[in-house]
């Protein structure tokens, strides 16, 4: 396997560092628009793990140009293109990978567009619609596009497949629930606002109308931050208020897993929600460029890019962050014995550990872990397929086994949890 990793930011950085401890691939090309970022990732790997005998090389890439992506992939004989940049680049990287004759993976799917006249009730263009529309092209080419293979989406979708195959005879709801007790402080020890993931992506997810799926209704939308509920997260995180957010799981799970309802709720917190609402009211969430007058003349800039530039890079806040983040799937329905069952399947990432082991903050590290496991399963032929597929299309057991197996035994040493929570009768 020869991997072209597109993006050396927080998640791409962590993907390369996690992969450096594995032997399933021949080459990883770490590429970025800023070549120095790619080079610094490789320098860290070589300093920590020694000479890699050419397994890692750096390259400059323009992710906005499908021809450029294809050219870099061909130059290095890439068999797989791993997309680790913001979802606005999905269409060009997706096209470039197919043109180069490579398989493709991403962690966030092509962007949505709200319904033009009824956005809070009806879907418009849904997340991933553009990619699934091209499935026949990938099938004809005999190549695989594995979409939504991060942590959420990704691991949560693997959990959905596992629950359907091994824990439940009938599923009422597949509810992805994400919460954390993370705190970021400045040099004086004061708590500050510093999102742990790309603010560009966060704005997109949180201010778009959330999508819900119901078996008798299909996909429909609701208002941002709707249906608040308090969900109790494990391993000391505790109760966190979660709200509906637009996310890929709701668009992926119903394609392969039989359930009556699919939802995604995220623990944002009042401060974060109020900031997002303010950005929306001021128009600072917009992606269309506006003209700004400056001393050097008019400058065209997207307001959302200005917000992103003014906040700390999520890849750099790890040393000032404390706490844990939890990603998981809450499943209700009837167990294999026909009795009511309620289960929470989850994985917790501790920032202190990820910083010590990988010099990577826990949210981006947890996201990066899962595509590396998927790449290994594809490299060994345990997972295989053609067309545009989500994680639910594959057997969950090999993934979860490899994830939890101790490092000394050839695994990743990342235990996942399962809490049986008695369903109300």
Brief descriptors of the model:
425 residues; alpha/beta; Rossmann fold; Dihydrodipicolinate Reductase, domain 2; 2 domains; 9-stranded mixed sheet; 7-stranded parallel sheet; 20 strands
Tell me what you see in this structure:
The protein has two domains: 192 residues, Rossmann fold, CATH 3.40.50.720; 216 residues, Dihydrodipicolinate Reductase, domain 2, CATH 3.30.360. The chain is built from 14 helices and 20 strands. A hairpin with a 4-residue loop joins strand 17 and strand 18. Strands 7, 9, 10, 11, 12, 13, 17, 18 and 20 form a nine-stranded mixed β-sheet that branches. A seven-stranded parallel β-sheet has the order 3-2-1-4-5-6-19, sandwiched between helices. The protein has a two-stranded antiparallel ribbon with strand order 8-16. The longest helix is centred in the C-terminal third of the chain and has 18 residues. The chain has 425 residues and is of the alpha/beta class. 34% of the residues lie in helices and 26% in strands. The radius of gyration is 21 Å and the shape is globular.
């Amino acid at each position: 396997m020869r991997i072209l990793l597109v993006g050396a930011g927080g998640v791409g950085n962590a993907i390369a560092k996690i992969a450096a401890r594995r032997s399933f691939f021949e080459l990883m090309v770490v590429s970025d628009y800023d070549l120095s970022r790619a080079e610094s990732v490789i320098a860290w790997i070589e300093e920590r793990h020694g000479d890699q005998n050419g397994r890692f090389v750096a390259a400059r890439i323009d992710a906005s140009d499908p021809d450029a992506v294809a050219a870099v992939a061909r130059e290095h004989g890439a068999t797989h293109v791993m997309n680790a940049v913001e979802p606005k680049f999905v269409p060009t990287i997706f096209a470039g990978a197919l043109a180069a004759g490579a398989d493709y993976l991403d962690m966030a799917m092509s962007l949505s567009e709200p319904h033009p006249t009824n956005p809070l009730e009806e879907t418009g263009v849904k997340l991933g619609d553009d990619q699934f529309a091209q499935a026949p092209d990938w099938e004809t080419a005999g190549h695989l596009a594995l979409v939504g293979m991060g942590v959420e989406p990704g691991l949560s979708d693997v959990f959905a497949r596992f629950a359907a195959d091994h824990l439940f005879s009938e599923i009422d709801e597949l509810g992805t629930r994400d919460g954390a007790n993370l705190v970021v402080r400045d040099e004086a020890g004061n708590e500050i606002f510093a999102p742990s993931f790309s603010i560009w992506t966060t704005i997109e997810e949180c201010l778009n109308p959330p999508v819900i799926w119901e078996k008798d209704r299909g996909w429909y939308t609701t208002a941002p931050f709707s249906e608040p509920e308090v969900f109790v997260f494990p391993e000391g995180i505790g109760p966190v208020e979660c709200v509906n957010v637009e996310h890929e799981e709701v668009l992926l799970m119903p394609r392969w897993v039989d359930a009556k309802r699919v939802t995604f709720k995220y623990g944002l917190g009042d401060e974060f929600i109020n900031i997002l609402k303010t950005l929306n009211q001021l128009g600072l969430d917009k992606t269309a460029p506006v003209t700004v007058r400056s001393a050097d003349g008019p400058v065209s800039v997207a307001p959302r890019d200005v917000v992103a530039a003014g906040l700390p890079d999520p890849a750099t806040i790890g040393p000032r962050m404390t706490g844990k983040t939890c990603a998981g799937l809450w499943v209700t329905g009837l167990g294999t014995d026909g009795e009511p069952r309620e289960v929470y399947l989850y994985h917790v990432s501790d920032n202190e550990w990820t910083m010590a082991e990988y010099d990577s903050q826990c949210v981006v590290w947890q996201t990066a872990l899962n595509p590396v496991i998927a790449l290994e399963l594809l490299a060994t032929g345990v997972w295989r397929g053609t067309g545009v597929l989500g994680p639910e299309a594959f057997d969950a057991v090999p993934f979860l086994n490899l994830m939890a197996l101790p490092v000394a035994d050839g695994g990743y040493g990342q235990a996942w949890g399962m809490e049986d929570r008695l369903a109300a009768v």
